[in-house]
Structure formats: C-alpha cells, structure tokens
Amino acid sequence: MVMNMIKDLFERQSVWERLKTCGKPIVLYGMGDGADKVLAAFERFGIHADGVMASDEFVRGQSFHSFRVKRFADFERELGDFAVALCFASQLPEVMAQIKAVAERRLTLVPSVPVFGGILFDRGFTEKYRAEIEAAYALMADEQSRLVYRSTLLFYYTGELSLLDGMTTDKSEAFENILSLGGNELYVDLGAYNGDTIDEFLHYSGGSYRKIVALEPNAKNFQKLRTHCADAERVELWQLGSYSRNTTLNFNNKAGRNSAVSDDGVPTRVATVDTILCGAAASYIKADVEGADRETLLGAKNTLKNFKPKLNFSAYHRFEDIFTLPLLIRELNPDYRIYLRHHPYIPAWDTNLYCV
To answer: How would you classify the pairing of strands 51-53 and 67-70?
Structure first.
C-alpha cells in the first residue's frame, strides 16, 4: 500500500538527518554542479563538510570551495573512519564500480539534490505532495513499476545506494516488453543530442521506420546530429527545443546533452510537438528535455489525445516528475498504461516513464 510506503519514509532518517548525526567527518565525493548544490543544502541543514575527494585520476592538486581535492586513500590516512557524500552521477560501469568499492569501505550516502530546480526531497516535500504521490502510484501498470516507484522515493529520502540495485533493469526489457517498436513507426526524438537515441530507436525497431523527426536545441550538438544523419532517408531535423508554446527562451548550452532552459544564456527557439507535426500521427515519442518535461507534454497534448503514441519520457530531472508527469499523461489521455523503469545509473537518473 502506498500509505505504508509514505509511513515507512517517515520512520527512517532522511539522508540529511543521517549525515548530520552520523558522528563522522564527512567527505564530499565529486566536484562541480552537484557538489555546489550539496554544499548549499549542507548549509541549510547545518551539516559540516570536512573535505572533498575525487577518483585518483582526477586529483591534480586542485581546490574546490577552499578544500584541497584529495584521493580516498589520503582521507583514510588522515581521518581514519569517515562518511562519504556522493555528489556526481555516472552510468559508466567502471565508475559505478568505483563508487560501490568506496561504499564497501566507508558509509556512503547520496544527498538528494535535483538535476533542475531548487526543491529538496525531504519530509516537508513528501508531506506537501502526499496526495499526488499516492495518486500517481495508483497509476503504475505493473509490480515492477510499483517497485521502482517505491524504491525511488526511498532512495531520494534516505540516500541509500543499495536501493538502486533492487530496482534496476536493462533498457532492453522496457523496449522489448513494453514499447515493442515495429517497422512502421513515426518516431519523434526530443533532445536528440548527437543521434545516439536515433541509433537506439533503429536498433529496437529493426532498422525500419516510416519517418523520424528529431529536435535538438544546442547548435554544436545539432551539427553533430546533422552529420550523423546525413545519409539517412525520411529524417527531419529541427534545431529547436520542445516546449508548451512556440517562443524563444534562453538555454545554458552546457556541454553534452545537458543544454537546458536557463535564466540567462543563448536565445534558442522552442516549439510544441503539435506544431512540428502539423497533425501527423506520431507513433513513438522519446523525450529527454532537461527539465522541460511537463511543458513538452503540454505542447504535445493534441498528439497524445488523437494518436496515443508510445512514450519514453525521463522522470528524474525534478523530484516532482515521478508523480506530476504520470498524472499529466493520464489527464491528457486516460487510455495510457503507465510503466516506470530505472536503468543502470548512479544516482537514480535514467528513471523513465514508458507509456502505451
């Protein structure tokens, strides 16, 4: 029962409470945006950080927030026992193995900071959104989805790495058992990056399709995408972001696939899926739109209502995505069956909604 799940959350210590009361020096593992957010949360909760470490190959005598960045072995010599707060994300098997190796030697927790936005997942967040959490849980279509839902919330709240292992499945399971792509799909790729998810689509559709429509807002990524697709037939490429209306927004244009709407940055055109398709019957939409997920769904409302395309939407950019997105999808088309899966990644990134 979802009520028992929320009750279970409240009976446990949050990751913030556990770090504050663990009685050990706390070392941040990682630098960059994630560590910035964790340190800001530490200040809010009155938690003291005692150092910053990085994997051996990234330690070059640099400093981060006045801490000299050191190796794990350095802190073992200097501090003896200590707790580790993980502050970065990876899906690389060798990096995830390194994280787990650290966790075997020292208490390692993952402070819950969002990819986008400033809302933290704590007791207050769970109490505020209790009704929505329960309503979305009731929409999950199978036991694996319910397991992923429960485990994701527990992971956000407790920061316990072991929860990820029990809810992780390979991406092929979702593509083969839920999406079941055929050879006549009109595929819409939102956040196409350099074409890697087009390749993924071709792999699972057997290389056949009716048409591909791909959007990528970042200029450098778009050039890579265009080069990647230069010899492909029936592929329509747009240098656009997807949104709830047609306008121009600022994008931060970070490297890789992390370009996102920002308060400042490069002015970038965005458009609705409904506008781009002009009434064409999309059969499969994948969206990894870096925090604009809700707006993207709103901009595709006619497509979802009229054609009920299969959906593959990220559900981890904001903590509220895990319940706001399924509730919105069901509102836009009540006929959807909604599944939730988590694929190999530390922390709970690559947690996706698959809807058919």
So the answer is: parallel
Tokens of 175: 């593509």
Count of residues for the chain?
A: 356
CATH 3.40.50.150 in the chain is located at 171-314
Is residue 354 packed enough to be buried (19+ CB in 10 Å), middle (13-18) or exposed (0-12)? buried
Helix (H, G, I), strand (E, B) or coil at 295: helix
Query: What is the architecture, at CATH level 2, of domain 171-314?
Result: 3-Layer(aba) Sandwich (3.40)
d(CA 258, CA 236): 22
In 3D space, the residue among 304, 307, 312, 262 whose CA is nearest the CA of residue 286 turns out to be: 312
Q: Which pLDDT tens digit goes with each residue over 114-161?
A: 998 888 998 889 999 999 999 999 999 999 999 999 999 999 999 999
Instruction: Determine the Cα–Cα distance for residues 196 and 193; give it in Å rounded to an integer.
Output: 7
**pTM score, two decimals?**
0.92
Could you give the CA distance from residue 318 to residue 322 in angstroms, rounded to a whole number? Answer: 8
The answer to whether 247 touches 261, Cβ cutoff 8 Å, is no
Burial 143-159 (b: 16+ CB within 10 A, else e): ebbbbbbbbbbbbbbbb
Residue position matching structure tokens 């909760």: 45
pLDDT at 270 over 60: yes
Domain 2-167 classification at class level:
alpha beta
Cite the residue boundaries of each domain of the chain with CATH code 3.40.50.20.
2-167
Angle in degrees, CA 205, 209, 213, rounded to 5: 110
pLDDT exceeds cutoff 70 at 254: no
Residue 279's nearest CA partner among 242, 244, 307 is 307
Report d(CA 223, CA 205) in Å as an integer: 25
Strands 351-355, 310-314: pairing kind: antiparallel
